[in-house]
């Protein structure tokens, strides 16, 4: 009788494991990404000076970019900002003064399905869109006036771009070792390496980056664990920096004076 119960429960657990795994595989985009799409004629209500640019990627795909302007008559350069996995540029516009107050323009791009950007959402496309933004920046700025900045999900995109194109500096806010490693942290019983459509191996890109790198990460980050980001330390060059924000969480880095002091210092160089 006991063997029958054990066998029955084993079958139930295997069934649950399989069903959950199938759901995770087919619903991973819904689980991982939370875009807020906008109609192409929607108006942004930013309190900062900006230009809106839409560029075609192909016949069916358009990339929407917001260029926040510095109050200086001549900008020091431009920060290409790759945002996180939710909402759209409207959510991240509040961070633009971190850069414009230091004399830099900041250009934010929405990923496919986010804001007014359209097209197929794939890892390869994300890298390609980032490259298009870089090429647009190069029509105005030289590489030593271009800073690449990634926040959370956008850190892998920024790192890949810095690995293949020259820039003044790469700054990563709450990065991950890889997307797979983060998902594995939460789902250790699943073979996520075979399940995920997204790899984003930041650890592969950083050794190829010749520009100075600065990483900011918080010890109480509940989304991307500090231990996960710390695995990137061996990939840094001797003069690169890993800045630890004690007791900070995933989305409150902007509230810490130490973050602003260090960022201001980097942008003054």
Task: Record keyword descriptors for this entry.
269 residues, globular, 2 domains, Rossmann fold, alpha/beta, eight-stranded mixed beta sheet, 11 helices
Detailed description of the structure:
By secondary structure, this protein is an alpha/beta fold. It has 2 domains: 1-32; 36-267, Rossmann fold (3-Layer(aba) Sandwich), CATH 3.40.50. Helices cover 36% and strands 19% of the residues.
Mean pLDDT: 92
| Share of helix, binned | 25-40%
| Assigned CATH class of the largest domain | Alpha Beta
Number of domains: 2
Unreliable residue stretches:
none
Q: Could you say which structural class the secondary elements and strand pairing correspond to?
A: alpha/beta
């Amino acid at each position: 009788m006991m063997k029958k119960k054990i066998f029955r429960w084993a079958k139930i657990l295997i069934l649950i494991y399989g069903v959950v795994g199938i759901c995770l595989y087919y619903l991973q985009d819904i689980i991982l990404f939370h875009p807020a799409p906008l109609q192409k004629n929607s108006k942004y209500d930013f309190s900062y000076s900006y230009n809106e640019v839409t560029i075609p990627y192909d016949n069916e795909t358009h990339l929407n970019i917001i260029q926040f302007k510095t109050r200086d008559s001549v900008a020091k350069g431009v920060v290409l900002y790759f945002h996180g996995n939710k909402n759209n540029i409207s959510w991240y516009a509040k961070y633009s003064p971190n850069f414009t107050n230091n004399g830099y323009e900041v250009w934010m791009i929405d990923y496919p399905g986010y804001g007014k950007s359209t097209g197929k959402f794939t890892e390869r496309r994300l890298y390609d869109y980032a490259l298009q933004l870089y090429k647009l920046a190069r029509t105005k700025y030289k590489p030593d006036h271009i800073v690449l900045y990634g926040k959370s999900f956008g850190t892998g995109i920024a790192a890949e771009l810095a690995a293949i194109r020259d820039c003044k500096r790469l700054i990563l806010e709450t990065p991950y070792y890889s997307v797979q490693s983060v998902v594995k942290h939460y789902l250790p019983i699943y073979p996520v390496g075979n399940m995920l459509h997204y790899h984003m191996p930041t650890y592969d890109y950083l050794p190829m980056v010749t520009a100075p790198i600065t990483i900011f990460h918080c010890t109480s980050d509940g989304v991307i664990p500090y231990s996960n980001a710390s695995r990137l330390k061996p990939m840094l060059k001797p003069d690169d920096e890993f800045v630890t924000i004690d007791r900070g969480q995933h989305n409150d880095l902007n509230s810490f004076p130490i973050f602003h002091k260090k960022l201001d210092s980097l942008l003054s160089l």
